[in-house]
Design brief:
The complex is a heterodimer.
Chain A (H helix, E strand, L loop, with lengths): L1 E6 L7 H13 L4 E9 L13 E7 L33 H13 L4 E4 L2 H10 L5 E5 L9 H10 L5 E4 L2 H11 L5 E4 L18 E5 L8 H14 L4 E5 L5 H10 L6 E5 L5 H4 L4 E4 L8 H8 L4 E4 L5 H4 L6 E4 L4 H13 L1 H14 L5 H21 L1 H29 L5
Chain B lengths: L10 H6 L33 E6 L5 E6 L11 E6 L8 E5 L1 E2 L4 E6 L8 E8 L7 E2 L1 E6 L15 E8 L5 E8 L2 E10 L2 E9 L8 E6 L12 E5 L1 E3 L2 E7 H6 L5 E9 L7 E4 L8 H4 L5 E5 L2 E9 L5 E6 L5
Parallel strand pairs in B: 1-9, 12-19
Antiparallel strand pairs in B: 1-2, 2-6, 3-4, 3-7, 5-6, 7-8, 7-11, 10-11, 12-13, 13-17, 14-15, 14-18, 16-17, 18-19, 18-22, 20-21, 21-22
Classes of the chains: A alpha/beta, B mainly beta.
């Protein structure tokens, strides 16, 4: 198969970039894979793409480059295809609209995969007849604004499939967007096997990692650890990551007198060696689109105590087997489950071993296999039953138009811009 | 003392360490005017060399390198460590690089090889006649350092912590201390701070005490160098002491004044610097952070609190109202 990914900026740092690179590298062992980056601001990508994946860009934003296009007047005019309600709208322009359209019209691949809503809209509207069109959702439908949902509803009927990272989000897509003939499939993010030995469960450390942002609720984790330290002062907590909440969390640690027990470690990359120093991982978030850190910790042999928040944790952790699920925003419950694992060495080690085994399902080979299967089935549908494929396209285009007209009418009444 | 050009530091911090992690100069023997950044892969340039480091609890390190396939390791291949800012004979250490499976090279730094205190940059000399190449960090498996607790009788303690520099290169921080006073938990209270810790390479005896010495520029103002002394409570090799904030505040002259902390294991014994070295954290200052509490000194309200210096030594800062 020839597979082409369309990504916002392959040269940055972020979850979507990392997980797309993992997937592309693994697929490239069997297929021809390219990543097309709309923007390029740096000479080399930060993450390792391996030798087989081709990488190119559509708009060059490197100021020191002879091909610099950031000053093109068309790049100062707003985009018309890329939806205005998308978070990244400000970085898109008439120039990106034009380049993406050119790229998609000429595309000779079997499969084209979009990696964010705005790019999925481009793919739905502009890919020439032929390639299978996939739109990936790396966040969740619920976290998008109403205006963006309307834009997606009018464009997505022309896709062949939408993939989400959780079953919960796939259900939301099926229920709220109603996309007849569009496969909606949950395929989790992948995490490679760490290149170092798993944790042995003997260290007296709880480890957490993520941006120091409100949604991660590290305040709840720190409050929970006050209970833990009162009962087991020999255990300590490390929180890896940087972010806006750092000063507030620092004051909370000082206020609770936990400065000998709770440590803000700053950002760490790679994280695997840091997980391996711990014996339990903790996740206190109120929302996780997927829960990448849960899988990372499990792949290092740690049982994870996590809040049962939407969307990922409950689909990753088997409560009581390879970790614990606790209610959101409840320090006492979080502390209770942490202490359960702290006070029972045998259970902790047993659950750590179970986490190591069960997290193998997130191996890039397994995840790429799910995509291969999906691509293969959609290709067969298109080829084997050209009539049905054409019907889907025709119906998609019609529905797309109908939704667009209806939504535009509704939006006009409300004064919302939908594209 | 070399002033690093890019980092904004206060005067206090300058005095704590001249070896701030700025990699300000190219090693003399490298010859060329190479920038201290990971080399851009120029045309025909070899692939970048990465080293995974595994630490053992005795203080030894094992380096595993991904070797370029096309250049088989020469007999003279070595992992080269160069002390930043050093140019003496002891400021370069060469460790033999031997084959370790397909495409891998290994070098070992045993705890018995002495490394002077400071920051050491890591290079690979593949024995191919080329200049040694700067190594990039791979996976640093430092789990055996996390709760490191050597035997208290150890004569001289060697600590080496590999880390990635600001520019993303591999370097080591090294300490050689003997005797050594390791700081553990610190409790801060309005009237003072209580430090507990463990003494290595010295047996506490009669007259054991902790000393706080103010760090003042001897040329500035006429204030005599002040020292505050408190007795040490000892149990085996474990110690605790409480340093009253009032005494430090009473000697405050102006601005933000750091006090360095020392232990005297016994009457007449050489003083030992109090530091926190026995774990995997290369830079303690940001990670081990303690509240500064208000203390009245006459009409002024000062703020007093412990902190770790850039060399991971323990100090106390007494700051005036304008400083906080």
């Amino acid at each position: 198969m020839h597979i082409s990914f369309l990504i916002h900026n392959a040269y940055g740092i972020g979850g979507t970039i990392r997980t797309t690179f993992n997937l592309a590298r693994t697929l490239a062992e069997q297929h021809d894979v390219e990543i097309v980056s709309v923007l390029r601001h740096r000479d080399d990508p930060v993450f390792d793409l391996g030798p087989r994946v081709a990488l190119r860009h559509l708009v060059d934003l490197r100021e020191n480059s002879p091909g610099y296009e950031g000053a093109d007047p068309a790049h100062a005019r707003p985009a018309r295809i890329f939806p205005a309600a998308e978070n990244r709208f400000g970085q898109y322009s008439e120039l990106t609209d034009r380049r993406i359209a050119q790229h998609l019209r000429r595309l000779e691949t079997d499969v084209v995969v979009g990696t964010r809503p705005g790019l999925n809209v481009h793919i739905a509207k502009q890919v020439r007849r032929g390639p299978v069109r996939i739109g990936q959702e790396h966040l969740t439908l619920d976290t998008h604004s109403r205006a963006l949902k309307l834009a997606l509803r009018s464009a997505y009927p022309r896709l062949d499939a939408v993939t989400t990272v959780t079953e919960a989000d796939a259900r939301t897509y099926r229920r709220t967007l109603r996309l007849p003939g569009v496969r909606v499939e949950a395929v989790p993010n992948s995490v490679p096997e760490p290149a170092l030995a798993p944790a042995d469960g003997s260290g007296k450390w709880v480890v957490a990692a993520g941006r120091l942002a409100r949604v991660k609720r590290y305040d709840v984790l720190i409050r929970a650890f006050a209970h833990v330290a009162a009962e087991r002062p020999d255990w300590r907590l490390r929180i890896y990551g940087g972010g806006a909440e750092k000063a507030a969390l620092r004051s909370l640690i000082d206020e609770l007198g936990l400065y000998n027990h709770v440590f803000l470690m700053g950002p760490a990359n790679p994280l695997e060696p840091e997980w391996a120093k711990g014996s339990i991982a903790a996740v206190s978030s109120s929302l996780e689109s997927f829960g990448m850190t849960i899988v990372e910790a499990m792949r290092c042999g740690l049982p994870v105590v996590a809040t049962n928040c939407p969307h990922g944790p409950g689909e990753i952790i088997d409560d009581g087997v390879d970790g614990r699920l606790v209610p959101v925003g409840n320090p006492e419950a979080l502390a209770g489950s942490l202490l359960e694992l702290i006070n029972d060495d045998a259970a902790r080690k047993r659950m750590g071993a179970a986490a190591l085994a069960s997290s193998a399902r997130f191996d890039p080979a397994a995840v790429a296999g799910r995509y291969e299967e999906l691509f293969g089935e959609l290709l067969a549908r298109g080829r084997g039953n050209r009539l049905r494929g054409n019907l889907h396209r025709a119906r998609g285009a019609l529905l797309s138009g109908a939704y667009a007209t209806k939504d535009a009418a509704c939006a006009a009444l409300r004064g919302v811009r939908t594209v | 003392m070399t002033a690093p050009s890019q980092l904004t530091v206060t005067g206090d911090e300058m005095k704590e360490s001249s070896a701030i992690d700025q990699e300000p100069r190219v090693p003399a023997s490298a010859g060329t005017n190479r920038p201290e950044r990971p080399a851009e892969p120029a045309e025909g340039a070899p692939v970048e060399l990465r080293a995974d480091c595994i630490a053992d609890s005795a203080g030894g390190l094992t380096f595993d390198l991904n070797a370029p396939q096309e250049t088989p390791a020469a007999w003279s291949a070595a992992l080269v460590l160069r002390l930043r800012g050093g140019d003496g004979a002891d400021d370069e250490v060469r460790l033999p690089l031997g084959p370790n499976g397909a495409g891998c090279l290994r070098a070992v730094l045993p705890s018995t090889v002495p490394l002077a205190e400071g920051r050491w940059n890591a290079y690979a000399d593949l024995g191919d006649g080329q200049d040694p190449r700067r190594l990039l960090p791979g996976l640093n498996d430092l789990r055996s350092l996390v709760d490191r607790r050597p035997l208290a009788g150890i004569g001289r303690l060697g600590v080496r912590i590999p880390y990635a520099t600001k520019f993303g290169n591999l370097a080591l921080r090294s300490w050689r201390r003997g005797p050594h006073a390791e700081a553990g938990d610190i409790l801060v209270a309005p009237d003072g701070m209580t430090v507990s810790g463990r003494l290595y390479g010295a047996a506490p005896g009669a007259g054991a005490r902790a000393e706080a010495r103010v760090r003042r520029d001897p040329t500035s103002c006429g204030a005599a160098p002040a020292t505050v002394t408190v007795p040490l409570t000892v149990e085996g090799t474990e110690f605790t002491f409480t340093l009253p904030y009032e005494e430090l505040a009473a000697r405050w002259a102006h601005g933000s004044e750091p006090w360095d902390l020392w232990l005297r294991p016994a009457e007449g014994a050489r003083p030992v610097r109090l530091a926190r070295l026995l774990d995997d954290v290369a830079d303690k200052k940001q990670v081990f952070s303690y509240p500064a509490l208000p203390v009245r000194a006459g009409a002024e309200e000062l703020r007093v609190g412990p902190y770790y210096t850039l060399d991971n030594d323990l100090a106390v800062r007494v700051a005036g109202p304008a400083e906080s």
